[in-house]
Write a structure and sequence with these properties.
mainly alpha, 2 strands, about 160 residues, globular, two-stranded antiparallel sheet
C-alpha cells in the first residue's frame, strides 16, 4: 500500500497567508478612508468597531464579558475600552450587583452615532460582497470562521 505525499502547499506571494495579510491591510485602509469621509471620523477610529458593535448589541457588559465575546485578551480589552472612553463613547460604571466589578456603558453620544455607525458598516459589507454571490459569501464566511477558530485554538 502506497501513501500519497502531502499536497504541496503554496508559500510566498500566492499563499493563503499572503492573501489573508493583504485582505487585512486593504480592509483597514478601506475602513480608514470610509471613516475619514464620514461624520464618524472625529469619534471612531479603526480597531474600535467590534467593541462598539458588541455594546450596541448589549450595553453594560463587563470587560470580561467583552473579552470573551470578542475573543480578545483582557489586557487588549482594557486598552480598547480606555481608547473608546477617551473618545467619550463609553463610561465605566460600578456593577450594582457586584461592587468589585464594573460595566462598560455607552454614552448618549455613542447612542446618537449608532445609526451612522451601522450605515457605514453596511456600506463596507456591501463593498466586500460586490463580486460574490450570496452562497459564495456565506461559504467564504464559514471557511474564514473555521480558519480563525483553528488558528485561535493554537493560541489559547
Amino acid at each position: 500500500m502506497s501513501i500519497s505525499p502531502p499536497k504541496k502547499l503554496q508559500v510566498g506571494t500566492d499563499s493563503v497567508g499572503f492573501y489573508l495579510s493583504r485582505a487585512n491591510i486593504v480592509f483597514r485602509e478601506l475602513l480608514k478612508q470610509s471613516l475619514e469621509a464620514s461624520s464618524l471620523s472625529d469619534y471612531i477610529k479603526p480597531g474600535m468597531g467590534n467593541l462598539m458593535f458588541a455594546l450596541y448589541e448589549r450595553d453594560g457588559q463587563s470587560k470580561t464579558e467583552l473579552a470573551r465575546k470578542l475573543r480578545l485578551s483582557k489586557m487588549t480589552i482594557t486598552r480598547l475600552v480606555r481608547d473608546v472612553e477617551k473618545q467619550k463613547l463609553v463610561t465605566i460604571e460600578a456593577d450594582d450587583r457586584d461592587g468589585r466589578a464594573s460595566r462598560v456603558v455607552l454614552t448618549p453620544l455613542a447612542r446618537r452615532l449608532e445609526s451612522d455607525y451601522y450605515q457605514l458598516a453596511i456600506q463596507l459589507e456591501d463593498r466586500i460582497a460586490t463580486n460574490f454571490t450570496s452562497k459564495q459569501l456565506s461559504d467564504f464566511g464559514k471557511h474564514l470562521k473555521n480558519l480563525v477558530d483553528s488558528l485561535e485554538s493554537d493560541l489559547f
